[in-house]
Write a structure and sequence with these properties.
This protein is an alpha+beta fold. Helices cover 23% and strands 30% of the residues.
């Protein structure tokens, strides 16, 4: 059976988060997601915050650029990422001012914010007094 090659994705960030969620549920060691600038930034934040062990750019069997996320394990082979949720969607954008940025699980998780200075965590945006679009929560 052939795989669909040219599928149109209306929400690439939700697609990335769903691939990660499915790979964690299936107990994969790593997952490949199609590459884009915004996904690279989200992957960079996940690496900096300690949710993934490694991020590398690879090519799939037909030469498309992919981002490979290698999951970090806690003791007992449990993944560090417990959950992911897309907040702002193409049909309903969610924006927050710097003083109203959400705290995920009272600061145990992170919110990924798209600001005028780039993509960053809620903590960094709060420090720089920047608001923006709330892209996702990771805990």
């Amino acid at each position: 059976m052939k795989k669909a090659r040219n599928t149109v994705v209306t929400d690439p960030i939700a697609d990335m988060l769903t691939r990660v969620r499915n790979a964690i549920g299936a107990r994969f060691e790593a997952v490949d997601v199609p590459s884009s600038k915004i996904k690279k930034e989200i992957a960079r934040i996940m690496l900096e915050e300690g949710y993934v062990a490694n991020v590398e750019e690879v090519a799939d069997e037909i030469g498309r650029k992919m981002i490979r996320l290698t999951f970090k394990l806690q003791e007992g082979k449990q993944r560090v990422i417990q959950g992911l949720r897309r907040v702002s969607k193409p049909g309903l954008r969610v924006y927050s001012k710097s003083d109203e940025l959400p705290r995920v699980l009272s600061g145990l998780g992170i919110a990924i914010i798209s600001t005028s200075k780039g993509i960053m965590t809620d903590k960094t945006a709060r420090e720089q007094k920047l608001g923006g679009e709330v892209l996702a929560y990771i805990w």
